[in-house]
Design brief:
It is a single chain. With about 180 residues, the protein is of the alpha+beta class. It contains 2 helices and 6 strands, in the order αββββββα. The strands form 2 sheets. It has a 3-stranded antiparallel β-sheet, with no helix packed on it. It has a 3-stranded antiparallel β-sheet with strand order 3-4-5, with no helix packed on it. The termini are far apart. About 15% of the residues have low confidence.
């Protein structure tokens, strides 16, 4: 009887293994944009402070308290505010698999590298949310490679890294994309 139960359990295990789906394919290592980069320049950035852990999407704020009965609602704006002026910060639109099109400034002050944890952030203009810190594994040459319109050579983290590169990353010559 024990042999029968053993054989039956082996048969069910084999059947379960045969019906499992193969794992999904890994993400494409080279991000390819669905279209051209945005034509507008982002607004000027605020002064970046060191990043704090941020989710990719903004956190949902607690709902405001219900208005009191005697307080009138605020007047609606007749005209929307004017668009922000163009940015004078040098950088470029870069397409990433994580965020889509983002504007990344070239200067070192917009990149934060925690050398103890091997985590990098960049202060970017992310169109749905404005200027914010985002995780930037490409600074170390890790993860899916973003699509740089002009190549990464103009970015301070690529041209003159001030941090130690990951021991498994070897940077080759990267040529800019020509249109």
């Amino acid at each position: 009887m024990k042999a029968f139960i053993f054989l039956l359990s082996v048969a069910f295990a084999a059947l379960a293994l045969a019906q499992t789906q193969p794992p999904p394919p890994p993400p494409d290592e080279n991000a390819q944009p669905p279209g051209p980069p945005p034509s507008a320049q982002p607004p000027p950035p605020p002064t970046p402070a060191p990043p704090v852990a941020q989710p990719i999407e903004p956190a949902q704020a607690n709902p405001p308290p219900a208005p009191q009965a005697n307080v009138p609602p605020p007047p609606a704006q007749a005209n929307p505010p004017p668009p922000p002026p163009p940015s004078n910060v040098k950088g470029e639109w870069v397409y990433t698999a994580q965020y889509g099109w983002i504007w990344i400034p070239y200067d070192q002050q917009y990149t934060y590298v925690n050398v103890n944890s091997g985590v990098a952030f960049e202060f970017v203009f992310y169109p749905p949310f404005g200027w914010r810190w985002v995780l930037a594994p490409w600074v170390f040459g890790l993860g899916p490679r973003p699509y740089f319109v002009h190549g990464p050579v103009l970015f301070a983290w690529y041209r003159h890294p001030w941090f130690r590169l990951h021991p498994l990353v070897r940077r080759g010559v990267v040529r800019p994309h020509h249109h």
